[in-house]
């Protein structure tokens, strides 16, 4: 039996003396990254270079994207969506971030004893409608039931397979100094939408989750002919986590312009109230793209011509300075470091 050496971990907070899982390990930030890199990757014989929204593998001469994800969102139904369509769209988007055309999904349900079957039915219906809208098929699955003391309603896991076309090369290590950072629309919407309907956290807003399948938008971007180097969907940890991961993988710095960040007023107000950074709040229907400098305008035009990219804009550039670090130029002319979130800002949002 292999013993994990916690003393060798580079933990951002003093958790080595209490080596147990905490909520922050699932937040998509520094603690999540450390858990994966220090525990799972060595156990699986894998490298950090293998990490991405999906893995691209070759089988029978075809290049396939393969991804899996689990969903524990609370509440299960929120403004603009539910755990059902979130589970489908999340995996579809992970495949799309490799430039793949999503084809097939599997799903697994863990149901708590006592859960109303009408609730399970609503989730299943939402998944079926989302799959149809995304152009994918749910082809296999599994169901398990746990006793009432061992679960919390419904947990959903999905896995997906997509086909990567010839010549498509997208990955987190491809960013270069001079590249342009694009975002497809307003950020932070999903996280605030989920918070808005939680007990004691009502903001009196009409913010709806942005959950949506992005494969069509990605296809339009690739069809523009512009050199799209990196794609990420900024879910847990938000845009901040995605850009920090790209900066570290590619060895570049990222410089953002705060005045160019598309943060809607309702999200900005909610984040100000709660002391959150909109860049660290989850999204479920947005993407971040790193494109070659000469391709930015044509890719932006293709994005804006698609319904899910109508609000696309450039928000920064990749630079040779401060490699592995993301900074933002403020409205006052200063700069601030956009760090990888340490733990869980908003638990149970995806």
UniProtKB/TrEMBL annotation:
Pfam families linked to this entry: AIRS (PF00586), AIRS_C (PF02769)
CDD domains: HypE (cd02197)
Superkingdom of the organism of origin: Bacteria
GO biological process, one term: protein maturation
Domain PurM-like C-terminal: 176-322
Ranges where the PurM-like N-terminal domain occurs: 53-164
Gene3D superfamilies: PurM-like C-terminal domain, PurM-like, N-terminal domain
Family annotation (PANTHER family): CARBAMOYL DEHYDRATASE HYPE, HYDROGENASE ISOENZYMES FORMATION PROTEIN HYPE
UniProt record similarity statement: Belongs to the HypE family.
Name the UniProt record assigns to this protein: Hydrogenase expression/formation protein HypE
